[in-house]
Design a protein that fits this description.
The structure is a single chain. Helix content is 20%, strand content 25%. The radius of gyration is 18 Å and the shape is globular. Strands 1, 2, 3, 4, 8, 9, 10 and 11 form an eight-stranded mixed beta sheet that branches. A three-stranded antiparallel beta sheet has the order 5-7-6. It has six helices and eleven strands. The protein has 234 residues and is of the alpha/beta class.
């Protein structure tokens, strides 16, 4: 089965439709599938729902799809540094389903593991719990959260082999593994494709059984908030 494709557009060919649910990896601007997001923008699909920790910034990450009004709903934890995300939400132009970060990650992981729902204490007594089933265990109240199964998962990894085994670099191993797991189809962009068999078993963060298509490309690696300090005088 061929998994390696030559471009983001080729890897997404036949997978994109209006009104689909997409799970996207990354945290802030760290480990986001920027090439695949660019190809989704160019495809022109609309009415998209994204399950992602946040939406990047105004002109990078999912933010580029907010600019073109291709996103109708965000399932996320954080508005972040994205002014357009905030503007659309406050103006009622964008539906937002806020999830605590751990809950969102577990919803993705659960969906990928075939678990339809789970109980958590996180959010009990807040707006997060409104409309959700409550259940007591050992004298403590929990709420039911549903697992997420996305039509498509898009993630960014550091290395892959041709069978789809993935290695993530440092903190880019954030929402990428659970996002990859919960997609009916998973497309991955990587910095390097290595020979099959060259990755040791202990190196692999996500096995290739979850991965359907792979591209290799160059990445911008933009910094979301650059902070510096003045050089100390001698």
């Amino acid at each position: 089965m061929k998994k390696v494709y030559s471009s983001a557009a080729e890897a997404l060919d036949g997978l994109l439709t209006d009104d689909m649910l997409i799970a996207a990896g990354g945290f802030g601007l760290c480990g986001i599938p920027e090439l695949l997001l660019g190809a989704i923008k160019e495809s022109g699909v609309k009415g998209l729902t994204f399950a992602s920790n946040n939406a990047g910034v105004d002109d990078f990450g999912i933010g580029i799809l907010l600019q073109t009004k291709q996103v109708k709903k965000m399932i996320s934890s954080y508005v972040g540094e994205n002014a357009e995300f905030m503007r659309q939400y406050l103006a009622g132009e964008l539906e937002v389903e806020f999830n605590p970060q751990g809950t969102l990650a577990e919803r993705m992981r659960a969906g990928g593991a075939g678990i339809p729902g789970f109980y958590t204490k996180t959010g009990v007594g807040t707006q997060i719990a409104e409309g959700k089933e409550h259940k007591d265990f050992d004298g403590q109240t929990y709420i039911l959260e549903r697992g997420i199964v996305a039509d498509l998962a898009i993630v960014k990894a550091w290395k892959a082999d041709a069978t789809g085994n993935l290695v993530f670099r440092k903190t880019a191993r954030n929402f990428n593994p659970p996002a990859a797991m919960c997609g009916k189809v998973c497309v991955v962009e990587v910095e390097e494709i290595v020979p099959t068999g060259s990755l040791g078993g202990d190196e692999i963060h996500l096995p290739g059984v979850y991965v359907h298509r792979i591209i290799q490309g160059d990445h911008e690696k933009r910094i979301e908030q650059r902070t510096t300090r003045k050089k100390e005088s001698a």
